[in-house]
Amino acid sequence: MKHHPSFKIRMATQALKQGKIIAYPTEAVYGLGCDPCNESAVLNLLKIKQRPIEKGLILIASDFSQLQPFLQTTNELLEQVLPSWPGPVTWVIPAQPWVPSYLKGSHNSLAVRVSAHPFVQQLCTRYGGPIVSTSANISKQAPARSSLDVQKKFHHPGVFIVPGKTPKHTQPTTIYNATTGLCLRRSKSP
Asked: What's the predicted TM-score (pTM) here?
């Protein structure tokens, strides 16, 4: 059954508010996400994905103002970062001291992105804040590219799967360190 996009947004927003994990389409692959301020949800996501907490996670948003409370920025840093958004570029930026280790891992920084994907834009706008974004896969396995792929990888009742499409990128988004300018991961588009 095909659902109207606003229905999918409402259902996904409700799932996030209930502390559930959602699987949703992003610029590159299907993502797993939850409310970044819900420690129980984030720890559950890490458990389902089998991802070590030390690695940290990415937050995605519909605009920079949703990410700003989590970050320590300078004008120079923002001049480098903001022109790449919205888009498939993730930046690692120094985190505010209050940001919990379950988000930033063993780092003093946080990976963030303002998404250009229409679903993510609408979801974060309706939710009123950023969400966690990590590829929908068990750690070290290939990321899911469709909702059917997510169903095959995760037989977990706590994951709400949003049907949708991902573009034809072959790899997750590019990641840069905003302080050093170094590329930490390069996307390999077709």
From this structure: 0.90
